[in-house]
Amino acid sequence: MRSTSAVDRYLARALALLAAPGAGALLDPLCGSGTIVVKARLARPEAEAAGVDVEPGAIAAATLNADAAGVSAAFRVADAGGLPIGAGTLDAVATNPPWGLRVSAAGALRGGFDRFWAELARVLADEGRAVVLLPGATRVPGRAGLEVVERTAVRVAGRLADVVVLERRHS
């Protein structure tokens, strides 16, 4: 896989498995080079995994990475602040939003994460789960229907980060 460290690859697999512990479909709405999607497909070849990203270059890289890994996955250009997905249709989301270190925020994230959180609440099915890797101490605002069920501190490339697990509750 291109442009990922060993830590990124192992953590990407863990995020994917935590989000979709069964054989359900998974979406990475900020897929970048597709690491989480590819690791999800390698861990569970029978499960569907797809990714979207606002940057066409990222989608091209994700497609190349999936091909190189020998897995099939659907990638398309879309903004995480306005996903082309019906309300309440996703069972699992796993993602690592840009932290502004290697990649800057684009699209809806440029103005902050509010639209992203609203989109997660909109697209997740009841009992759906999202796993998000965030810079340490990032505030996760309360959103109707989304509940933080776990938050675990980890170190990624020497930086403090949080693996945040959110679930969609009946509203």
Could you characterize what this model shows?
This protein is α/β, with parallel strands linked by helices and 171 residues long. The protein has a single domain, classed as 3-Layer(aba) Sandwich (Rossmann fold), CATH 3.40.50. The chain has four helices and seven strands. A four-stranded mixed β-sheet has the order 4-5-7-6. Helix 4 links the parallel strand 4 and strand 5 (124-135). The relative contact order is 0.16. The mean pLDDT is 85.
Number of domains: 1
Architecture, according to CATH? 3-Layer(aba) Sandwich
* Intertermini distance: 40 Å
Overall radius of gyration: 14 Å
Mean pLDDT equals 85
Strand and helix order: HEHEHEEHEEE
What's the CATH class, please? Alpha Beta
- Stretches where pLDDT is under 50 for at least 5 consecutive residues are none
List the quaternary state of the chains. single chain
Instruction: Write down how many β-strands occur, each being a DSSP E stretch of 2 or more residues.
Output: 7
The biggest sheet amounts to: 4 strands, mixed
Topology (SSEs and partners):
Blueprint: H1 6-19, E1 26-28, H2 35-43, E2 49-53, H3 56-69, E3 74-77, E4 90-95, H4 114-123, E5 124-135, E6 146-156, E7 159-168
Parallel strand pairs: 1-2, 2-3, 4-5
Antiparallel strand pairs: 5-7, 6-7
Helix pairs in contact: 1-2, 2-3
